[in-house]
Every structure is written in C-alpha cells, then in structure tokens.
Amino acid sequence: AKDGGGNQVAVFESHMGEAIAQSFRIEAELRHALAHGELQLHLQPQTLPDGTLSGAEVLVRWQHPLEGPIPPGRFIPVAEQSDLIVELSAFIFREACLLLARLQAAGVDLRLSVNLSPRHFRKHSFIPWLKGLLADTGADPHRLTLEVTEGLFIDNLSETAARMDELCALGIHFSIDDFGTGYSSLAYLKRLPIRELKIDKGFIQDAPSDPDDAALVDAILAVAQNLHLEVVAEGIETPEQATFLSTRGRIIRQGYLFGRPEPAELWLQRWTTPPL
Ligand code: C2E
Ligand code: CA
Ligand code: CA
Ligand code: CA
C-alpha cells in the first residue's frame, strides 16, 4: 500500500524486525560469552543497621570484548525467552556455590542471595540439580537465599509452593524481590515459605520526600514484622534514605551508599578480614 497507513505498518514491522534480530544476536553472542568466560559474578554488600556485613547479592555481569559491559537488564530477559537462561543460571549458581564454600572454609559467616530464574526453577530437573550442586561444592544451603519475583506465583501456585517447600526443607531461604511492584497478594505470604521481603528501590528512593512512598514502606514493614520476616531495603543511594530507614528497626541495607556491585574477587578482598 502506498498510503500513510501502509507506511506506518511497514515502519512498525521494520522496528519489530530489528528488535527480533537484536534478540537473536544477543542470544547467539550470549552463548559464545558463556563458553568463553565473558560472564562474571559481582557481589553487592548487605549490611545490618549497626554496620555489620550480613551477606551479599550475586549480580551477573557481561563484559563483551567489543561492546564493553552489557547490563543484565539487556540480556537476562532475552535469555529468559529460551532455555539459554537455564545454562546461564546454572553457571551463576555454580559460581555462587563455589564462593559460598570458600567463605565457609575460611570461617566467614555470610549469606549469598542469588536471583532465581523462573524458567530454571520450573524445570523438573531444577531441584535434583541444585541438590547435586550443593553436594558437589559443599556449599551450605542454610547460607543461600533465593530471590524470587512475584510473577513466579501467578500460575500453578500449588506446584510452586511444593517446590519451594522442598528447597526450604534443605535450609534455603526465599526472599521476594522488588516486593510491592508485582502481582502482590498477601495470601502468598501465608502459603509460601518466605523468609524475607526485599523492598523495591523505587519505594526506598522516594520515601524521604514522598509521603505515599513512606506510607508504603511502613505498611511493608508492618506486614514483615507481624509475619516475622526479614526485610532488605535496596537501592539506598543517599544519607537521607539511610536516615529514613534508621528509625525503623532491623532492616538490612543494600545500595550504592554502602557499596556498589564489584567483581567477586575484589569484593572478597574488600569485605572479608583477613581478605580472602
Ligand atoms: P534486581 O535483582 O532488582 O537487582 C538490583 C539492581 O539494582 C541491580 O542492577 C543493582 O546493581 C542495582 N542497584 C543496587 N544498588 C543500587 C542503588 O543504590 N541505586 C540504583 N539505582 N541501583 C542499584 P543490575 O545488576 O543491573 O541487575 C538488574 C536486574 O537483572 C536484577 O534486578 C535482576 O532482575 C537481573 N539480574 C541481575 N543479575 C542476575 C543473575 O545473576 N541472575 C538472574 N536470574 N537475574 C539477574
Ligand atoms: Ca535481586
Ligand atoms: Ca530488586
Ligand atoms: Ca529490580
């Protein structure tokens, strides 16, 4: 068609084509990256109100040899579209368990929080595989937290609950990441073996200046307190945000103010004494 509408469709299709081509390219390059050691674990500290280190969140980084660092927001969602995420997630878990075993061997009492891919979790092989990995590496499941997002609970809640219960029985903790931004239903908190709520950085960042965000943070803290859940606040960047939290009880802090994500080896040198 030569009319305007036709052109619009053509432009739209070509954008769609570009997005799809881009996804294919990222997928192919990610496969290569996994095989060639371009992926690296970074750690970001989590600290108690008194400043004591309690653990770290594991965050994957891709150092592309030509394009430089590619943020996880650009490749995790692409990987999640196919079983490539299973391979990627397996790599991340293996590295994280090896780190955990090293910390244990050195007598360092810290937890590691790993982001759980919904697609990996739903594989029937996931639980036996993870048990095998824990046995192979010697990593103590009691020091492992899995961060899940609320999207995981949408379908098949009873199967999800059964699987989470099985992992919980090993000693693994579950944390709800970005709490309050998804399909939150407080009923999940009763049904699932949740140990921790992670307040999304969107709420934390505006809490000192926006009464609505402050009220939401307080509501989340009240729920957590009544259900005896641990709370992590993420995305703390300013002293004002830290001050806002300081009068609100036991909240684990994570954010650039306390430490940026850093390569695991560097992080261990900086945060463990004597440095690992
Ligand atoms: P997330 O799990 O919500 O991770 C928190 C994100 O906030 C991280 O971004 C972290 O670097 C960033 N962040 C930490 N402190 C601050 C702060 O003070 N201010 C601001 N503005 N941001 C802060 P990152 O590393 O880019 O990760 C983005 C998302 O990618 C993660 O969100 C997670 O959904 C996913 N992701 C990252 N690593 C992994 C992984 O190893 N496995 C899986 N499955 N997903 C991952
Ligand atoms: Ca997370
Ligand atoms: Ca988060
Ligand atoms: Ca997030």
Automatic annotation (TrEMBL):
Every EAL domain range: 23-275
Organism superkingdom: Bacteria
Listed name of the protein: Diguanylate cyclase/phosphodiesterase with PAS/PAC sensor(S)
Annotated source species: Pseudothauera lacus
Higher taxonomy: Bacteria, Pseudomonadati, Pseudomonadota, Betaproteobacteria, Rhodocyclales
